[in-house]
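Renewal narrative, Specific Aim 1. Our central claim is that a sequence can be written position by position from structural information alone. The example that follows is taken directly from our test logs and has not been curated for this report. It begins with the structure tokens describing the chain, in the order in which they were read.
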């Protein structure tokens, strides 16, 4: 999970994370791949509270809040406020877009304003973790 704070989690990447997490759990529990156990049963046996995706999202949110409270180069890079021209074609999904969707904030601008208030930002992260989205 080293460096996971900067990952952009798309739907395709999310499915891959969930699949590899399930593979890890089956390996740790020594469940053969021929065994007909559903993923729900494997999760019950593992009794894992939070998935790998939730842990990554929480790390991303805390790191994002830390970066946004500072007025440095990292802030400019992550928000995408750099000069220059955009590439042709469909724009890639950005870290800020995925974070706003996960936190349930209406827009990226509103989310950036909430990062300035540390207690409110922590409340947003805790609420998103409880909902488990």
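The sequence written for that structure reads:
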């Amino acid at each position: 999970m080293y460096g996971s704070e900067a990952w952009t989690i798309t739907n395709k990447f999310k499915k891959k994370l969930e699949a590899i997490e399930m593979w890890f759990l089956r390996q740790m529990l020594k469940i053969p791949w021929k065994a007909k156990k559903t993923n729900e049963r494997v999760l019950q046996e593992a009794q894992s509270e939070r998935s790998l995706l939730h842990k990554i999202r929480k790390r991303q949110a805390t790191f994002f809040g830390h970066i946004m409270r500072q007025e440095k180069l990292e802030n400019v890079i992550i928000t995408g406020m750099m000069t220059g021209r955009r590439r042709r074609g469909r724009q890639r999904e950005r870290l800020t877009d995925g974070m706003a969707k996960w936190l349930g904030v209406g827009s990226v601008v509103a989310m950036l304003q909430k990062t300035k208030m540390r207690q409110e930002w922590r409340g947003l992260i805790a609420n998103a973790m409880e909902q488990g989205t």
